[in-house]
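User: For a teaching handout, I'd like to show students what a predicted protein-ligand complex looks like in token form. I'll give you the sequence and the SMILES for zinc ion. Please answer with just the structure.
Assistant: Understood, here is the input followed by the structure.
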Amino acid sequence: MAASYGRPVTTIEPGDSTASDDAQSVLDEARAVLDPLEQRAGVDMEALDHARRLLLVHAHPDDETIGTGATMAKYAAEGALVTLVTCTLGEEGEILVPGLEHLAAGRDDALGPHRADELAVAMEALRVTDHRILGGPGRWRDSGMMGLPTNDAPGCFWQADLDQATNELVKIIRDVRPQVVITYDPNGGYGHPDHIQAHRVTVAAVERAGDPTRAPEAGEPWEVAKLYWSAIPKSFLQAAIEAMRDTPNNIFEGVESADDLPMGVTDEQITAQVDATGHLDAKLAAMRAHATQISVDGFFFALSNKLGFQAFGLEHYTLARGEGGAGEGPHGWEPDLFAGLA
Ligand SMILES: [Zn+2]
């Protein structure tokens, strides 16, 4: 790809890839959804000095939107600098768009550049302008689901040298100087090797970034004030299981309890809830941008109809490092990831 990934702001030019005409038309369709969003009153970014800086580390394009998209849109709209670091281009993903199956790893192996384009459209929807690929595009490849032979491929993120990957992220942390960093929990949310690796790299990089004796070539030390793990409440999953029961294409078929799923944490483990329901339109537009991965007719959208779209604008986190600020509500959850920071 000819797009520049240089600092400080990376843009991925949509269409600048090996994508076919079909792939381009799918992207154009996703972008068309953005037009009404353009009308929304925005914050004058020029007038703000980005006093608040939020950095998110995700494994594949689409993870940022599904798990944290509303949060990203909310803080970007409020004038915070939101930086997304994606560790791989998701080359091993399945393809849900008929006609684009040829992009798959086993055929043309051209899914990565296409997903970079999808991600660029999603970032337009969320109004996030600073997006980077860890180590540059193609540096580490999608490892595929846990247990697959792709886990052993040289160059995949699961096989990454942890020290090298950590230093790449240290460079970004010291450049952006975020007060708040978000990644996955130690199990990567649900056990995907790239998510687990993203967790390991982020925890190590946050630690190293603040240590003046480590990686001096990677910039001035920066102490991250708060590190969060993204979280899905089991109570939400339980509601989803019940809402989807006896419906067609029930992804929870045979599952009675949220305790039987590989993801989810108790309400007690959660420490923050970001209410970004006002930015749900941006999150949903970003989901549509990830068309090869998320079907508008599929499970997620069926679920959001059943549960109410509002539920998808509430995103949850567990504070893993740093001091929490004032909480509220029945659980005492922080309403703001920057709570307690000067
Ligand atoms: Zn992922």
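For the handout, you might add this sentence: Residues 1-19, 43-48 have pLDDT under 50 and may be disordered.
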